[in-house]
Design goal:
The chain is an alpha/beta fold. It has a single domain, classed as Nucleotidyltransferase, domain 5. Helix content is 39%, strand content 20%. The chain is built from four helices and five strands, in the order αβββαβαβα. A hairpin with a 5-residue loop joins strand 2 and strand 3. Helix 2 (78-88) runs parallel beside helix 3. It is globular. Residues 12-25 have low confidence and may be disordered.
Length: 132
């Protein structure tokens, strides 16, 4: 019984990776930029998980929404929680100044690409769009 539960959990955890590996970036690809403000001129946040805001864009560089990061003041597990939050928003790429190891692993397991970038949101978005 224990063995079956472990196998089930392994399949469940690896499923998002298997699905997204073949998906590629489509027209509805969403890009999140961790930012210190809610405009494209704002600086990219140094810490992805503790960023004050996430700005969500489509591939046409249109701002879909600016979201307050609900995990910015979390003492433990901010990276894991933020990765889940962004996955629920169907984000394919996230840009920030830096990423913690736990957040990078959580993003990878969900098929989300992370890109480290220093500068403003507008330039970060350009850089992220060149990944495709």
């Amino acid at each position: 019984m224990k063995r079956i539960v472990i196998i089930f959990l392994m399949i469940l955890v690896s499923y998002p990776v298997m699905v997204s590996a073949d998906a590629g970036y489509s027209e509805d690809t969403k890009i999140a930029v961790a930012a210190t403000g809610q405009t494209v001129e704002a600086p990219v946040s140094n810490m992805a998980a503790k960023s004050p805001y996430y700005l969500i864009f489509n591939k046409n560089r249109e701002l879909i929404e600016a979201i307050d990061n609900p995990y910015r003041n979390t003492l433990k597990g901010a990276g894991f929680s933020a990765a889940n939050f962004l996955a629920q928003k169907n984000v394919a790429i996230i840009v920030a100044g830096s990423f913690g190891l736990k957040m990078m692993n959580a993003l990878k397991s969900r098929g989300i690409t992370n890109l480290e970038f220093n500068g403003n949101v507008k330039d970060a978005l350009k850089e992220a769009l060149q990944l495709n």
